[in-house]
């Protein structure tokens, strides 16, 4: 059992290691940073806050994870990331629209 688990872990984490895995880890790190910046902003404000950096990290990490999932041929992540990108872009669009309207006033 331990030998089987050891061989599986070696194959997954060492045998499959290539530039795409590096991109995948980088993308996942970017995606994780959105929670870090949201947490820091909320702690500073002492209330729940979603800073604009959250949406930029979401977009950047989402695009890279979509590229990674397309290369890996994973339909679950392809669909999940593609749909998420629509939400991230829409939120950034709404933020930009709100900032433009504030400048007009």
From TrEMBL:
UniProt keyword terms in alphabetical order: Membrane, Transmembrane, Transmembrane helix
InterPro entries recorded: Lipid_A_biosynth_N (IPR011499), UCP028440_lipidA_biosyn (IPR014546)
Membrane-traversing stretches: 20-37, 49-70, 76-96
The Lipid A biosynthesis N-terminal domain, residue ranges: 23-94
Superkingdom: Bacteria
A matching Pfam family: LAB_N
Protein name from the UniProt record: Lipid-A-disaccharide synthase N-terminal domain-containing protein
């Amino acid at each position: 059992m331990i030998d089987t688990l050891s061989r599986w872990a070696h194959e997954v984490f060492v045998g499959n290691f290539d530039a795409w895995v590096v991109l995948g880890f980088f993308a996942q790190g970017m995606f994780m940073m959105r929670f870090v910046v949201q947490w820091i902003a909320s702690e500073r404000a002492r209330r729940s806050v979603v800073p604009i950096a959250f949406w930029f990290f979401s977009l950047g990490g989402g695009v890279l994870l979509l590229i990674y999932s397309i290369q890996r041929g994973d339909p679950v992540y392809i669909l999940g990331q593609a749909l998420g990108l629509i939400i991230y872009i829409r939120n950034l669009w709404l933020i930009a629209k709100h900032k433009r309207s504030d400048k007009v006033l």
